[in-house]
């Protein structure tokens, strides 16, 4: 069924198709009550694969990556599919339109996308108003970004205002400092800038935890275009500042030889999907080697089937996220991954 829908959707430009899919999933969530029994009847029972990480219990390790539902339009519908967690956003403090269109491109034969969306967001006010109207019956991550007009030297203030706004609504918060589509954003991954950001975030987290009697974990999302030395420094910084988790990785600005001849290969922006799989997995392996064994690590990048999902978990990820694979494979991808994990588990 999804193959037919995809053939129709892929006749549209990618951003239009994305909007239609998000709207359709949102409608499904409004029509179908998000009840575990009814959801099981609707989509079939999924294998149980609970995971404990960041002080939270996830019903299974497969989540939706940020970027699919930026403005809380499809949350209840996504919850119906049975994902272990859903990461909403990226949301910025103020509404912004993002980069000029066209800004999303399919590389269909490679199972890949290139995007330069630029944190298009309706802002925190709209985001929280929408979230307040959902049933919110899934583990909820909220991915925060900075506004494009905020100078990079003032980026910390955007992240702090975002953290304050979403703190009580989120199960965990992701700090996105790795999108390639906002000028200078990735400089926040470097040394002194990262230390200043993490120190400010942890101080605010402690204050908010005391005020609200609730501890909301913070994860940092990093780029795949970092070298081993940079990964070691980041690992040291997040452990030293007692950050709660790392998400590896965002999209890449690199272009693998496999896509070099594609007509969209020269488009600027972040590449996601199958060509990113090896790089993302290598970064997870490198991070796991320099992080404490119990440190929560979320692997994302190029996961489009059970084999790539299991490989990411074997690399050292506690949890995984999918996005581009979901666009190409549809919601049956979740069941395939969980079934594959179940079959691969020792009995």
What this model shows, in words?
An eight-stranded parallel β-barrel has the order 3-4-7-8-9-10-12-13, surrounded by seven helices. The chain is built from twelve helices and 13 strands. It has one domain (2-344): TIM Barrel, CATH 3.20.20. Helix 7 (191-212) runs parallel beside helix 8. It is an alpha/beta fold and 347 residues long. It is globular and about 50 Å long.
Determine the CATH topology: TIM Barrel
Q: How are helices and strands ordered from N to C?
A: HHHEEEHEEEHEHEHEHEEHEHEHH
Helical coverage, percent range: 40-55%
Largest sheet: 8 strands, parallel, barrel
Shape: globular
The CATH class designation is Alpha Beta
> What proportion strand?
15-25%
End-to-end Cα distance, whole Å, is 33 Å
User: What's the β-strand tally?
Assistant: 13
Count of discrete domains: 1
Reported CATH architecture: Alpha-Beta Barrel
Strand order of the largest sheet: 3-4-7-8-9-10-12-13
Total helices: the number is 12
Rg over CA atoms, rounded to whole Å, is: 19 Å
Low-confidence stretches: none
What is the topology?
Layout: H1 2-9, H2 14-31, H3 36-43, E1 51-53, E2 56-58, E3 62-64, H4 75-81, E4 85-91, E5 104-107, E6 112-115, H5 123-131, E7 140-144, H6 155-166, E8 172-176, H7 191-212, E9 218-222, H8 228-240, E10 245-248, E11 270-273, H9 277-290, E12 297-300, H10 306-315, E13 319-322, H11 324-329, H12 332-344
Parallel strand pairs: 3-4, 3-13, 4-7, 7-8, 8-9, 9-10, 10-12, 12-13
Antiparallel strand pairs: 1-2, 5-6, 6-11
Helix pairs in contact: 2-4, 6-7, 7-8, 8-9, 9-10, 10-12
């Amino acid at each position: 069924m999804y193959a037919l829908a995809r053939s129709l959707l892929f006749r549209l430009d990618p951003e239009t198709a994305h909007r239609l899919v998000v709207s359709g999933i949102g409608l499904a969530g409004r029509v179908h009550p998000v009840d575990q029994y009814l959801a099981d009847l609707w989509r079939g029972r999924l294998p149980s694969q609970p995971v404990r990480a960041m002080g939270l219990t996830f019903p299974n390790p497969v989540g939706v990556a940020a970027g699919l539902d930026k403005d809380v339009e499809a949350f209840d519908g996504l919850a119906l599919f049975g994902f272990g967690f859903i990461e909403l956003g990226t949301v910025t403090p103020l509404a912004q339109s993002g980069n000029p269109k066209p800004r999303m491109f399919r590389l269909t034969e490679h199972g890949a996308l290139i995007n330069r969306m630029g944190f298009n967001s309706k802002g925190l006010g709209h985001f929280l108003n929408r979230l307040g109207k959902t049933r919110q019956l899934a583990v909820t991550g909220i991915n925060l970004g900075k506004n494009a007009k905020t100078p990079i030297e003032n980026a910390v203030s955007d992240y702090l205002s975002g953290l304050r706004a979403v703190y009580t609504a989120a199960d965990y918060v992701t700090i996105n400092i790795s999108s390639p589509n906002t000028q200078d954003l990735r400089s926040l991954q470097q040394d002194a800038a990262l230390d200043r950001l993490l120190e400010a975030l942890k101080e605010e987290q402690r204050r908010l935890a005391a005020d609200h009697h609730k501890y909301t974990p913070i994860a940092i999302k990093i780029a795949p275009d970092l070298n081993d030395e940079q990964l070691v420094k980041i690992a040291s910084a997040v452990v030293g500042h007692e950050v709660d988790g790392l998400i590896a990785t965002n999209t890449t600005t690199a272009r693998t030889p496999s896509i070099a001849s594609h007509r969209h290969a020269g488009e600027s922006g972040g590449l996601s999907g199958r060509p990113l799989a090896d790089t993302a997995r290598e970064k997870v392996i490198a991070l796991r080697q320099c992080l404490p064994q119990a440190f929560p690590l979320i692997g994302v990048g190029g996961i489009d089937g059970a084999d790539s999902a299991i490989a990411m978990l074997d690399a050292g990820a506690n949890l995984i996220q999918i996005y581009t694979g979901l666009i190409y494979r549809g919601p049956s991808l979740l069941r395939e991954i969980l079934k594959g994990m179940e079959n691969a588990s020792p009995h």
